[in-house]
Amino acid sequence: MAEDCDVSTIVTAFLLKTCRPKLHSRPSKRDVEAALHCATNATIHLPEYEDAGLIPLITGSSVEFYIEPMLPHVGDIDIMHHKTIQLAIPQGHPPPTQLPTEFHNYVKVHEIIDSHFPGYVYLQLRYLLTQCIDGGDYKYNYIKYDECVYLLNQISEANVETHGPAIYHNLHKSNVMSVDLVLCVRCLSWPTQAADWPTRHRNYGWPDSATLDRVVNNGCDVVPVAHRQCRQHERMGLRQWRLSFSRAEIVLINSWMPVQQIVYHMLGYFIKTERLTDCGDNSGAAVLSNYHIKTLTLWACELKSRSWWTENLNLVRICVELLQTLSVWLTDTRCPHYFINDCNLLDNSFNVGSVTSKLVSVDKEYLSTWLVNNYIRHCAQLCPDNVSRLFDDASSSVKLQNAVSEIVRRRKDSLLRDIWNTLRYAEIDILAFVSVFSLTAQSCTNLMNEFAQMDELFCVYFTAIALLHVACKMSRNGVSDKLMDIFATISLDVLWRKFNPCYSVLSLHKIECKKSEVIELMQKSVVERLTTYRQLVARDFGSVATIVTTDYESLYACKRGDYQRCLQLSTQNVHTLLYARLMPEIPTFPEFIQLMDDDIVSLTALTLIVDPESRYTHNPYSCITQLTLSLYLTTQCQLKLYHSVTSLAQTLDYIKVAQKRHLHERTLDQLTLKLIERKVHRTI
Question: Which residue range(s) make up the domain with 200?
Answer without folding.
Answer: 40-255
